[in-house]
Every structure is written in C-alpha cells, then in structure tokens.
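Is this the right way to post structure tokens for a design question? Let me know if I should format differently. Anyway, here goes:
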C-alpha cells in the first residue's frame, strides 16, 4: 500500500486524514495545500511502472505491501520537481507533453509482463525525448560521467514506449536543475550552471527489455510469495538510500531480523 500518513515535527505519526482535519500540534508545519500535494500518490494497479522497476525490488515490494509514514519536509525537493514538471507542460506545436499520458510497453506474454510509464516531453522536430530532474550536483555529475544507471534505464524504457507510438527518437536528454547550483560545492564538482543538459546513452533495445523483464518478474514473484531479496549495493547507493532516503527501511530491517531468528 502507499504511504498512509506523516511524521509530525515531534516524531509522532499521524494518518493523512487526521492531519488534514486538524493539526495535532496547533500550528501546521506546512500549508494544507502543500500537505495535500505531498500525500497524493499513485495507487498500485497490478502493472509496475518504469519508476518502480528502476528501484530495488524489495523497496518497490514494501512500498506496495506495507503502510508507511514519512516526514513531509523530507519531500521538499520532490515537491519542487513536481512544480517544475507542471509549469513546463505548456508547450508549442510539435512538442508533446507526454506527462499527461500514461504509456505502456509489453515485456513478454501476459498482463504480468507489462510496464507503464509517464515520460515528460518529446520534441518531434529535434526527435528528442527529455526528462526533467531536480537533483543535487553530485547526481548530475554522475549522470554526466555515464554513472547514473537508473536514469539511463528510465529514459530508455520511456524511449521504447514513445517509439512504439511511431515516433522516432534520436536523442535522450536529461534537463537537470541542480538544487545546489551556483554554490561553491557544485562549482568544485564542475557544475557552474543551475540548469544542465545531459545527453544520455541509448542502450540496445534487447538489453533494456531484458532488464525490465527481469525486474518485473522479480517484483511479481515477491508479491506472490511475500519474500524478496535485499536490494543490491548499487540500488541502495552503497547503503545511503537505506539510511536517509527510503520510507520503508524500517520494514526492511524487520524482515532481516525475522530471517536471522528463523536461521
């Protein structure tokens, strides 16, 4: 199941509905419209999305099956990204605002071997598929060096969906807003602009399909059996994601404890 509520500033959890009705602390930590936007989530439909499949399978599995709470202020940059996306959907002719369309792609036989995705923008004149990102300069530099594998896979997954509609895609581009752009640390990393255009690698179609097919199969098997292997070191960013950026890490720790007890 998706997130069910927030952590208040004092660390106490509160369901979304109760938070929206009345602030238990007497003064809201964020405006009500902001909280409503942060609580908005996509429901699990039985068909995984590109975004779910580029995550660690256990993380995606737990986000679907376990209730969780999160600190609304931890989603500040996610909210910024959402606002950027919405403002950049007013586009001229020949540019398709694909974020208004959910596309799908068959990965094999049967409903379980499909995935969905919502790309951002396709420019028919430049034959370019764009994806908007709001990220720290560290991640942008990794992408520039070809080391941001999940971004490459995400754009190539979207590319296959767009090409399936009959559009030709010659370039894959990330338009990244560096959250720490124009700071000394960003400049030290070689990022001297706040908005950076990053060309992404076009992968072999069979390689892209094989990756998403494997991840979709693993996710469905986890949902059927209730068991899932730990995310890889690469998927957890060498553990940093577990420590600070995973809302279901507490459930992951519980699974590990149970496995140890059953040995």
């Amino acid at each position: 199941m998706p997130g069910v509520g927030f952590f208040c500033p004092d660390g106490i959890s509160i369901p979304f509905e109760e938070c929206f009705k009345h602030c238990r602390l007497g003064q809201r930590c964020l405006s009500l419209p902001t909280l409503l936007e942060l609580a908005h989530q996509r429901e699990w439909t039985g068909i995984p999305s590109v975004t779910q499949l580029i995550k660690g399978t256990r993380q995606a599995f737990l986000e679907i099956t376990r209730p969780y709470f999160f600190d609304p202020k931890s989603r500040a940059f996610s909210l910024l990204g959402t606002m950027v996306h919405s403002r950049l959907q007013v586009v001229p002719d020949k540019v398709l605002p694909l974020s208004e369309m959910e596309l799908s792609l068959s990965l094999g036989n049967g409903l379980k071997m499909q995935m969905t995705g919502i790309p951002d923008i396709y420019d028919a004149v430049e034959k370019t598929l764009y994806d908007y990102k709001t990220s720290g300069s560290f991640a942008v530099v990794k992408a520039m060096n070809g080391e941001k594998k999940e971004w490459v896979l995400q754009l190539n997954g979207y590319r296959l969906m767009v090409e399936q509609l009959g559009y030709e895609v010659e370039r894959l581009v990330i338009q990244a807003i560096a959250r720490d752009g124009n700071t000394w640390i960003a400049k030290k990393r070689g990022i001297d602009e706040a908005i950076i255009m990053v060309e992404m690698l076009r992968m072999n179609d069979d390689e892209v399909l094989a990756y998403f097919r494997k991840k979709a199969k693993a996710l469905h098997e986890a949902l059927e059996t209730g068991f899932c292997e730990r995310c890889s070191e690469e998927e957890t960013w060498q553990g940093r994601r577990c420590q600070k950026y995973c809302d279901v890490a507490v459930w992951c720790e519980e699974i590990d404890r149970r496995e140890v007890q059953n040995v």
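Format looks fine. Someone answered above. Worth noting: Strands lie at 3-7, 13-15, 68-70, 95-97, 103-106, 114-117, 121-123, 128-135, 171-178, 195-199. The longest strand covers residues 128-135.
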